[in-house]
Amino acid sequence: MRVPERAQRGSVIEIRAMVEHPMETGFRLNNVGKPIPRHIVESFTCQYDGREVFRAKLHPAVSTNPYFVFYTVATRSGELLFTWKDDQGGVATHLAQIEVTE
Amino acid sequence: MTRGVLPLTQPGLDHTGRARRRALGTLAAGALLLVVRPATATPEDLAVALHETFGDRPITPGKVTLELPRLAENGAVVPVTVVVDSPMTERDYVERIYLFAEKNPLPRILEVQLGPYSGRARISSRIRIGDSQQITAVAVLSDGTLWSAAMQVEITVAGCGL
Lengths: 102, 162
What we know:
heterodimer, A: mainly beta, 7 strands, B: 162 residues, alpha+beta, six-stranded mixed β-sheet, three-stranded antiparallel β-sheet, 2 helices, globular
């Protein structure tokens, strides 16, 4: 997760987010010919100060260890909450703080 | 919090000891993982996915820039960036960006939601490209218009598991 610690109000900040996940496609067979069940991250969201500022829906064609770079306008000091949810009920969250100056 | 749980098979539980020994034998033989590629999607599947998503709304080439390597050595991890020509103001912004593949097992790759709060209509990620093929990006603008870009990517080693 990479978020600038400080930003000027109104400036556009770059956010880099990655989670460790196999992103098993469900199309592969194991060594005894049984399909390896699909296990993928299905959604990723970023909430800034309680407001959603990015949402992604992922399909099996997103690579192992999903990674996103996106942007948002620095509005006020607060928390950025990142949430990854997979198709087996797994949830990973991460919090980052940003200080917004005038 | 909603929980999307897929029915899980439990490898190992339903194996007989014999199957297990056979499996170990296979492992010893060095066949660690057999990758079988299902029939790939076709450009027709892509057309169906586009129609499911956008109906009959016209999609116009333009405003979207798709950054992908022309030649990717490893199809399992291909960096991708989509940039849309938009001021990202309250009145004129990009609502969604979609990525589609014409020859992966599934035509959908990913979808993102943006808004005026994004400030910049640009996203990057890493995707699997199962075989040499055309990748398409479609942007939905706040005025309801749809814009697209497409790019042919040559793959030397196919995307792992695709």
